[in-house]
């Protein structure tokens, strides 16, 4: 990341100059002392200025906003971008028209963009890993309810027919929803089989 070197009468003076030059605040920078300097006799004889190196911290929120804004621009969409952070999770919500283009078939496009956003946010190793959740039109919540319904309906079918049932391939997030929805059902067992991206849930009667 680009850095600048600044001199001053002392460390505080050099830091103030750097903040003014970068037009930022102390919370948004990293700095290291190259030379602490020396006051010298009467602040004149033997005086040596302090020197520091300053660089901007990685602003992952702003980078995420720029990234999703560029994607929206490329596909010709306009949307409000809302980004909130809690603990180590970043929630990004899009509000606008024709968001179906961002969601894609069963959320595949949304998941792909979310994956890329995670790479952007976690590009710097100076911060703890952040979990990124991208959503629009409350799709995540709606999809979760749909999958819970699929889980219960499929389990009931397995219980009734006593035959093993294989569901369609799902991503890891959706498979976890199915497993969780049936974890307390003592009449069936669930497990995953196959290789990504064709890995699927298998529901079998509990013998």
What does this 3D model show about the protein?
- InterPro entries: Jag_KH, Jag_N_dom_sf, KH_dom-like_a/b, KhpB, KhpB_N, R3H_dom, R3H_dom_sf, R3H_KhpB.
- Residues 5-55 are annotated as: Jag_N domain.
- With 207 residues, the chain is α+β, with helices and mostly antiparallel strands.
- It has three domains: 3-56, probable RNA-binding protein from clostridium symbiosum atcc 14940 (Defensin A-like); 60-137, K homology (KH) domain (GMP Synthetase, Chain A, domain 3, 2-Layer Sandwich); 141-205, R3H-like domain (Ribosomal Protein S8, Chain: A, domain 1).
- The chain has six helices and nine strands, in the order βαββαββααβαβαββ.
- The strands form three sheets. Strands 1-3-2 form a three-stranded antiparallel sheet.
- It is elongated, with a radius of gyration of 27 Å.
- The mean pLDDT is 90.
Notable traits:
Defensin A-like, KhpB, three-stranded antiparallel β-sheet, 38% helix, Ribosomal Protein S8, Chain: A, domain 1, elongated, cytoplasm
The gist of it:
The chain has helices spanning 11-22, 60-74, 100-103, 108-121, 139-161, 172-182, and strands spanning 3-8, 29-35, 50-56, 79-86, 89-96, 131-136, 165-169, 188-193, 200-205. It is α+β, with helices and mostly antiparallel strands and 207 residues long.
